[in-house]
């Protein structure tokens, strides 16, 4: 069966967010998911949704996009508010049932791997990968996640634009953000964007039907 990627996450420090802030974070996640869906036809297999108040799930039909999507979701949240962030566990595996209206009602190996990985996550990292022979991607995710922890709001805003598969030029980014091109270049360099793009491109370049990650 085809390998899918399930991203399961929960908002960091959600109990400290007021109702309006929590709603804003949820709406930002929903907007980010819609933008990810536009990266490739039928990439998002069902409607992403929140459950248990602060937890969410996203199902991707092309697992190669899993790292880029995880980085993008964290960037979108941090770009929206310095108090917003999320942990993300990526499960790589087969899917037995897809509920088109609510991702969290779907089931299969990828969902179990993702959910169990999130439950077992500690506080040391915010992105991990679980699945058969996923060690290399997990290492990349953890290293990049530790760098993303230090993104400022302005850096995250630039990173959001740079992570899109059809990313605009830095001149176009500057115009959209209302800053100078030099400011964009400095923000992206400080955010270590090259490491994130290389990790995402490595993941996307794998031969997923026959993938062996280590």
UniProtKB/TrEMBL annotation:
InterPro entries: Cro/C1-type_HTH, WH-like_DNA-bd_sf. Gene3D superfamilies: Winged helix-like DNA-binding domain superfamily/Winged helix DNA-binding domain. Residues 169-186 form the HTH cro/C1-type domain. This is HTH cro/C1-type domain-containing protein. It comes from Brevundimonas mediterranea.
């Amino acid at each position: 069966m085809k390998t899918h990627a399930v991203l399961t996450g929960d908002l960091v420090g959600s109990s400290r967010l007021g109702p309006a802030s929590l709603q804003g974070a949820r709406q930002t996640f929903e907007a980010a998911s819609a933008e990810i869906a536009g990266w490739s036809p039928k990439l998002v297999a069902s409607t992403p949704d929140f459950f248990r108040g602060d937890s969410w799930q996203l199902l991707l039909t092309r697992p190669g996009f899993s790292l880029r999507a995880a980085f993008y979701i964290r960037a979108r949240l941090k770009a929206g508010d310095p108090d917003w962030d999320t942990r993300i566990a990526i499960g790589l595996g087969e899917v037995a049932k897809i509920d088109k209206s609510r991702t969290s009602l779907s089931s299969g190996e990828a969902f179990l791997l993702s959910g169990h990985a999130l439950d077992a996550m500690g506080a040391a990292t915010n992105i991990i990968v679980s699945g058969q022979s996923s060690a290399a991607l997990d290492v990349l995710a953890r290293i990049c996640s530790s760098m993303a922890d230090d993104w400022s709001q302005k850096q995250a805003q630039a990173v959001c634009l740079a992570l899109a598969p059809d990313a605009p030029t830095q001149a176009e980014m500057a115009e959209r953000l209302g800053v100078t091109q030099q400011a964009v270049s400095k923000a992206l360099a400080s955010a270590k964007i090259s490491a994130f793009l290389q990790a995402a491109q490595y993941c996307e370049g794998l031969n997923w039907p026959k993938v062996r990650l280590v």
